[in-house]
Amino acid sequence: MSDKPGFLARRFQQIAVAVFHAEVAAAGFDLTPVQYSALTALRAHPGVDQATLAGLIAFDRTTMGGVVDRLAQRGLLTRKPHPTDRRARTLEITAAGADLLDRVEPAVQRAQEIMVSGLDAAEAAEFLRLLRKAVEGCNALSRAPLTPA
Amino acid sequence: MSDKPGFLARRFQQIAVAVFHAEVAAAGFDLTPVQYSALTALRAHPGVDQATLAGLIAFDRTTMGGVVDRLAQRGLLTRKPHPTDRRARTLEITAAGADLLDRVEPAVQRAQEIMVSGLDAAEAAEFLRLLRKAVEGCNALSRAPLTPA
DNA sequence: GGGTGATTGACAGCATACTGATAATCAGTA
DNA sequence: TACTGATTATCAGTATGCTGTCAATCACCC
Description:
The structure is a homodimer. By secondary structure, the first copy, chain A, is mainly α. Chain A has helices spanning 5-26, 33-44, 50-56, 61-73, 95-115, 121-137, and strands at residues 77-81, 89-93.
């Protein structure tokens, strides 16, 4: 089983989420990896609509609805009607959201290091390169491909 | 964002599941990656209980309940009372389950290759080695660590 | 032989993810 | 301008995964 990339993909994701949760909770915060990604992308691209934000981090449009709901409910972002397109809603990170991102950053960084702590520095760098390359090569194969700005 | 192992982990898992689904569906079957793993492990270890099966493939005990329910409902495995431990249920793969595994195997193999099609053969081998090493190094960090027989 | 701690399977509840469908709207064309 | 096709957000439904909790049961130790 452990020689199948698909099985290891699931396992690595499982570990990544657990480590993220553990570090972020230990630092006193309550934020999922998905919520962190969404807020980070929103800070870099203020004013986008939900579909565009989803494309920036390869989320499914449907999933993004729920994520945005929960973040808005906690006051970490705002959702206002788009000035010209009446279908869309414009998203903006709030001061509370940006502040939370700043304060949680050290925990997130620690989590990223722990995930690859089984590898030495050279291996970790090579692993990251190959993982990025594999993901980019298959970008179009998921329902929600990455769509840069 | 693409330099964070956590983000790439989620993305690679997302792609892996999509590719698995696409190949398996194209071959005319209806089986999720998780169901495939469970059936495969059960065939290799007939008669185990749910908790043991979960440990063999690093599933959460709670998740395994639902997976087993759906597989039993489709007649791919059976769930009988354990002969000595009245808490446990003994799981067995059925002939239909084993037959399905055999017939779906080529599609699963194709999916595994597609997932790493962005890498050449040497890179894919090294990627698999590093991924396996990273996962093993962090095995204890998830709620559901891998527990070999 | 009785009490204690661990284990098994289940439950409710939350958060991703996907499929397929829909209504509202927009944009470009006939 | 009317029509067509694409796009935005949402909905119902299914399947993972996790947290925490619970009752039933087991295994071990005093």
